[in-house]
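Holo prediction — TXD.
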Amino acid sequence: MSKKISLIGAGQIGGTLAHLIGLKELVDEVVMFDVASGIAKGKALDIAQSSSVDGFNIKLSGTDNYEDIKNSDVIIITAGVPRKPGMTRDDLLGINLKIIKEVADGIKANSPKSFIICITNPLDIIVMALQKYSGLEPNKIVGMAGILDTSRFRYFLSQELKVPVKEIESLVLGGHGDTMVPMPNYTKINGKPLSEMIENKKLELIIERTRKGGAEIIKLLEKGSAFYAPAASGIEMAESYIKNLKKMLPCAAYLNGEYGVKNLYAGVPVIIGKDGVEKIIEIDLSSQEKEQFNLSIKAVKDLYEVAKNIDKNL
Ligand code: TXD
């Protein structure tokens, strides 16, 4: 049966997602939705024209009409506005909450059975709001952050240790922010524990660089934030769902008692297969890791309180 992915937001990440889906021929059809319909249509046309060179065969279109997303297998959301000079984080949260309410309504009315991957920041809060606004099954709504954070950690380690990234297994848990929790105890280099391979001081620097990985790129780009690695990470989640790969991936998932957390989205390892988030994996945490994880959860909860003050319906 033919498969379809809709992308809500056709900005930097949305465009990269569409291109990657094309190159991989992950599905048969991609719909790019954006309030700026010209951007959605223009990028869809541009990527479609690249298929003549690269030889992929998928249908691409751009739209600003939610009806066009109907019967999507997967929906990936990047719609939002970036922070502008003079705007506080709370101002940004207010604007992006309004956008996500619109997106939730559009999805609920047109494609309520899709697997929904949210990428818009502030990630943990926006994905939570999306679930509340849409009322759709929490196991069909996930946030992308952990794969990206883990990929940054693995990359920095590979550079330091001079080993290919492929040989590094790792995990980053918690909220998507400065309090995220890279997990050295769950990191292996060619099967060997990381602690045997790196000095503590160097590891601490890498953990710090990982936590600030997004800001480092924003500073370099000056305009906008990272988009290649975030898009690649979103694709890994979509692919695990579409192909029922049942990969274990760190994602922002709805916690209902797992890790001692209730009614909150946060980054934990999950299994993604044809039913969405099929399982939340509870790994053992040392007391120090638990402490860091709880601190990260507190940061997510605090920001969610700010969101609730902005919109009492949350
Ligand atoms: O790890 C992660 N989760 C992230 C998150 C890593 C990197 C970036 N992350 C966040 O993703 C970032 O802070 C943004 O909130 C999103 C999207 O990033 P991108 O770089 O793609 O942003 P752009 O280029 O500004 O694109 C956003 C698009 C833009 O084309 C707008 O016109 C559109 O969103 N937009 C909308 N689309 C649909 N509906 C509405 N209401 C809407 N409003 C804006």
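READOUT: Residues 7 and 32 are 5 Å apart (CA to CA).
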